[in-house]
């Protein structure tokens, strides 16, 4: 059955939004989880992925135009399907004609008549010619450089023309790092930490500024098997959180594992990334393995840590679910990976539909990733045991610390958070698993904001 693609609501206050760019042309075949387009609002910009596999038929190809939430943008058709005839004819009209016709029809009907719903998808042999206008509009829009939303924001802030940048991403797509590398000669005179020109440092983890703004930056460290994009649900709920830098741990995302695996080496890479961005004071947050890394960074004291947020951190006891790591690393397809990913959440339905496909796609693009993560697991989680212990480190910390833990964590036993120093604020969430930042984003965002304020007030 045909799948509608609409302009989604990406935050609670959103009423309208804009399509920043389409990544797929009309008539192309797409896979579930593949990025389709970028949506831009006053608060955020993000990619929207395909909810199903099939052939993409774009009915509204416009970009940069304010549209209401729920507006129809495209359909994904299964093999042998075609657009409903009425929809195909509508798609062949220009956006201005469509808007005028809609306005005129609404006026003629009067306020009491509701518009008719589109017909169910039926076989239409000549649907492709009917969408010629949409295909042409996409082709005309190809003059706009392909770039991620974050790269576009960086370029706008630094006054850089994207047409002058060669993209290093898939199909020549411009990434944030491409803009950062082009920024030194064109950066604004007045700039905060988020506009610092990166300094190459050997062993530094790859990183990306997920937010720009004023104030003390936040530094985010993800967990085992994830990457820096795992923080996006929390940031979507956080509203104005100031500048936010996230890193890819070595062996994850875009960061290669270049040294012997160990907690010290991971902390070194994150520390080098922060220093490369000119950061000497941050609000620090870490999830799972990243929580252990963040705790070690805080205890070292080489970077000023205003506050420390730990979400389901590793290193509080030896017990863990050894089957998860083994199954996660062994899986080679969606069918074998999804059952393990579901264990991250208290409710299996909370698993994002595209997570397995995105993880596998990342592995295909970086064949060394799985072996690197196996080496990390062997060093840090030998024989299914947590070999790191952050309890003594936590006892030595003086900055405000919050620890957030789900009571239905299937990866690390929640009871390991008991018996920690009384100066640490412990927040236990029912009906929540190993991913509180994704399962309870609003509540975690509120606690994080409180913690940052507390850390700022002390200085």
Characterize the structure shown.
Helix 7 links the parallel strand 10 (218-221) and strand 11 (244-247). The radius of gyration is 24 Å and the shape is globular. The chain has 459 residues and is α/β, with parallel strands linked by helices. The protein folds into 3 domains: 3-107 and 123-141, RNA polymerase II/Efflux pump adaptor protein, barrel-sandwich hybrid domain (OB fold (Dihydrolipoamide Acetyltransferase, E2P)), CATH 2.40.50; 145-191, Irregular (Dihydrolipoamide Transferase); 200-457, 3-Layer(aba) Sandwich (Rossmann fold), CATH 3.40.50.1820. The protein has helices at 85-91, 95-109, 127-130, 132-141, 149-158, 176-182, 232-238, 263-276, 289-300, 322-330, 334-342, 355-365, 369-380, 391-395, 436-439, 441-457, and strands spanning 3-6, 16-22, 29-30, 35-40, 45-49, 54-58, 67-68, 72-77, 207-211, 218-221, 244-247, 281-287, 304-311, 401-406, 425-429. Residues 94-142 and 184-201 have low confidence and may be disordered.
User: How would a textbook summarize the main sheet?
Assistant: 7 strands, mixed
CATH topology category name of the largest domain: Rossmann fold
Radius of gyration: 24 Å
Q: Pick out the low-confidence regions.
A: 94-142, 184-201
Question: What class would the helix/strand composition place it in?
Answer: alpha/beta
Query: What CATH first level of the largest domain would be assigned?
Result: Alpha Beta
The H-level CATH homologous superfamily of the largest domain, spelled out, is: Alpha/Beta hydrolase fold, catalytic domain
Q: How far is it from the N-terminal to the C-terminal residue, by CA?
A: 58 Å
Question: Averaged pLDDT, please?
Answer: 80
* Domain module tally: 3
Indicate the proportion of strand residues. Answer: 15-25%
Give the overall shape.
globular
Number of strands: 15
- Helix count? 16
Strand numbers in spatial order across the main sheet: 9-11-10-12-13-14-15
